[in-house]
Amino acid sequence: MTRRRRVYEGKAKVLFEGPEPGTLVQYFKDDATAFNGEKKSTVTGKGVLNNRISEHLMNRLTEIGVQNHFIRRLNMREQLIKEVEIIPVEVIVRNVAAGSICTRLGLKEGNALPRSLVEFCYKSDELNDPLIAEEHITTFGWATPRELDEIMNMSLRVNDFLCGLFTGIGIRLVDFKLEFGRYFNGDEMQVILADEISPDNCRLWDLETNEKLDKDRFRRDLGGVEAAYQEVARRLGIMPEGGPGDLKGSTAIQ
After folding, report:
1. pLDDT tens per residue, range 83-112
2. Which domains, and CATH codes, for the chain?
3. What number of H helices and E strands is found in the chain?
4. Rounded distance between C-alpha atoms, residue 205 and residue 6, angstroms
5. Which of 129, 176, 118 is nearest to 151 (CA)?
6. The whole model's pTM is what?
7. Which residues, in sequence order, are CB contacts of 204 under 8 Å at separation 6+?
8. DSSP output for 16-42
9. CA Rg, the chain, in Å?
10. What pLDDT digit, counting tens, does each position of 24-45 carry?
């Protein structure tokens, strides 16, 4: 097999040079991390499930006109994506009080927010992804005012759509993180959705019981991480019969 050039490796994914110019291959690992990498483990099959879930959600967003980097899934752990210049800003959309906002503002976990709230963090592991304001983004040139408007509009549109989609399968979309990138197509540039959408970067609670179906099960040592991710895939209708398959994923990285 031809050895592929590794372009970037993050906590949960590896990016390889794609088969055509302007493309990358995104490989989903089973590595699980929390608290900016301070807590680490391996969750068997997590990469397979996140690949399938993210594929499904990105395709659904494409159907409603939200442009994103997903092209197609290549196998159980890899997908072909458009190469983008990542904007170093993480966008957090919150519908329910949970996680760091409860600590910062003394809110009770589980209370619905008066309206959907968008927060920004500077994408920097070394600085622990500090919370920033819109003025920081434009002042330091991480994104232009026009790009920031596009990011805000897309984030809220994604939130509206995913809230409805998850409610329909008995899941409450508590909050989630998005990343965006600049996609260059000839002389044209557009800001598009990048990274992934999965239980790794979404808080997903059962609508009736508030049972956590996301990475908080790993963060809080609740156990049952694999089963929670599988349940999300099952409710989305993408869980293959007999399980997610290719659980070990030992040969995909080259």
Report:
1. 999 999 999 999 999 999 999 999 999 999
2. 6-84+224-236 (3.30.200.20), 87-206 (3.30.470.20)
3. 6, 14
4. 35
5. 118
6. 0.92
7. 166, 171, 172, 173, 174, 212, 213, 214, 232
8. EE-SSTTEEEEEE--EEEETTTTEEEE
9. 18
10. 999 999 999 887 767 889 999 9
